[in-house]
Amino acid sequence: MKYLDEYRDGDIAAKLVERIRRVQTKPWVIMEVCGGQTHSIVKNGIDHLLPKGVELVHGPGCPVCVTPLEMIDKAHAIARRPDVIFCSFGDMLRVPGSDGDLFSIKSQGGDVRVVYSPIDCLKIAKANPDKQVVFFAIGFETTAPANAMLAWQARQCGMKNLSLLVSHVLVPPAIEAILSSPQNRVQGFLGPGHVCAVVGYTEYEPLAARFHVPIVVTGFEPLDILEGVLMVIEQLELGRAEVENQYSRVLARGGNGPAQELIAKIFEVSDRKWRGVGTIPQSGFRLREAFRDFDAEERFSVTTIDTMEPAVCIGGQILQGIKKPHDCPAFGTECTPQHPLGATMVSAEGACAAYYAYGRHLKDADLITIGVGGR
Amino acid sequence: MSASKADEQEKLGPFGSCPLPIFDHPQIVLGHGSGGKLSADLIEKVFVSRFRNPTLEKMDDQAVIDIGGAKLAFTTDSFVVTPIFFPGGDIGSLAVNGTVNDLAVGGAKPLYLAAAFILEEGLTAADLARVVDSMAIAAQNAGVQLVTGDTKVVNRGKGDKVFITTTGIGHMNRATQLSADRAQPGDRILLSGYIGDHGITILSQREGLEFESALESDCAALHGLVAGMLDEAEAAGNIAGMRVMRDPTRGGVATVLNEIAGRSRTGMVLRENAIPVRDTVRGACEMLGLDPLYVANEGKLVAVVADDIADRVLAAMRRHPLGADSCIIGEVIEQPAGMVLMKTSVGGTRVVDVLFGEQLPRIC
Amino acid sequence: MCLAIPGKVVEIFTTEGMHMARVQFGGITRDACLNYVPETQVGDYVLVHVGFAISRVDEEEAQRTYAALAELDQLSELDAPVVEDVPGGRS
User: Fold this and answer.
1) Cα(A338)–Cα(A330) distance, rounded to whole angstroms?
2) ipTM confidence score
3) Is the Cβ pair C89, A61 closer than 8 Å?
4) Alpha helices in B143-266 (DSSP H)
5) CB-CB under 8 Å, C28 with B213
6) What domain range is B150 assigned to?
């Protein structure tokens, strides 16, 4: 597949690793922001390819992981209603709330449907005029254009039986929160490639300057990630702290104008609570006044439920890159994808779940760098 | 209770101290049918625990029983696929081939089938005829006879058009010793062709995830392919070198290999570049964030074969139309026991773990 | 976050007021909305996330940057000297 396969070339990967080895003179801690980047790193075994002095820590770029428990409980309360068809991206189906997940609600008779695109909800709403179709609009800035279009089209079509449960989060405030923390160890960032394809990377320039950290906007394929790491290390070795663009084949500094325009029409910035981290001011989107009639939270009076995270979960510290999954006493034992205790285990690309899926919980995990007969 | 006893009681959790563990899901969820950990959990805790016997505990795709000196293979499977008609097959051909394959990969010559139908009120006679015609053709191609059956009708809304259960009997007419616990370090892992065709075909028909492709299910009877492999192993004087064969249906190649690695207490290492995946399947998996290793197949097999006969058996596979794209995808290693590893195309190593529930399309 | 993959635009059309394309990913074809990349032509590659093209692939830039990657080892003589394993390790 063009623009994917060639970015998985083993020979070029080896060259990039070799180049990193040559350039690096000290240990460095680099955070990749996106859950999709974490997924790619762990799935391809990239962190084991890197020289020992490069430590990758996994960031909070997993919208599923950071969705607050209260929001999940609201989603579940709405999905349980017999007059509702609850539509969601696949990622959210197994996220447990205070009492079950969307799968179990489905098994109890709730009409829960997986959609690939938010636009699919329009068809469902038209086909089911006597039901209320609710879409769980989660995501970072990357998904905002799609979610915005749903609200826009719903308005254009005058739809009365469609609403959105919005839980959008923004990346720069999260990075700022991480960098502001006294426990921060991160020295450089692989910036979120697809987020920046939408909103550009101008917002990262003041962060790089203020905290003196290099931020390299990076793609998702193995060669992208390795090249991004190389660029960060080259900056760190020279004491530079700029925003650079590794993913230039896909994005430019200003991002996508038309997408930003529609997002601005539909959404406004608001405070948001991040699971495991707490409230970060001005870190999310909500529907603007003019589109508030499509807000599912307002349409269904969903009372807030008391929620409590298990004390043992260190997901918050993992999301900030302060700890790793195997630093947690519950990782792989009491806390598994089957019985997740916290945010980072619930979603397929949360750091704990990604580590678990790719085997890091097993004691023999270090054996996976055994020679396997030529490359 | 003393403090330590209270702690113990806490740790025991929902199972308490009952020897029959209480299955800890209050309701069955779709993931229980996906072939992954949830399914295995369900089978072990609810069924095997109540029907303990040595044959059942082997947990191979078929049971081998001895009746008056004749060794018979006995297996059953249910088919609930939606939609019931799809490119490359239908629920009928699936129902025949699926059971034929379970018998064949166990080393049996498939002989007889029984079929039980649960029909939903409102199913058209034309659709039913189409399904049964398909079964008749599949049975003829597989050399099996449908010798008994049953039909029930349930109310509209209580059954998804048609559910079919087929039970098969085969004759163990060779000195094979195929079993999931027989893999040994040094053995090679063979795969009969492109993976993911069936699962992605079904997915492409599912509302909301539709996409266009020329893809078809690979639904096929594998008895002929298997016979060719066993013939070759016998000719090489090492029938025991055929350690285990499985058809990787729901849960895919990854699930089946993990089962074998677990039962055999060996490790495995695969090479990502050696695993054949069609462009269509790759495109769909990339778009939806799925891993082809976990996608269902209905006309493929994996075989663990002793090193000294592996090349010969591979050649025999390639001579058969259903094995033309056969390849060696990895080998069995000693450690880490029970784990399946894979050398990725970029040169790293990852663990190919067992799936938990269904694979879900993701946005991240 | 943000699973988005590049695909080739094979057809452009309008439906219900939305600017759409049929996009080919490897061997499959699926529709995607082009409202956010209105200048797209048939034959272009776009990056699609949940049914929306969020950017176009700049093919010249892709070629240029990929060529630079492929030529990496030819520049190695100009680099700093090789250092052995760096102390400090990772967890």
Assistant:
1) 13
2) 0.89
3) no
4) 197-204, 223-235, 252-264
5) yes
6) 62-171
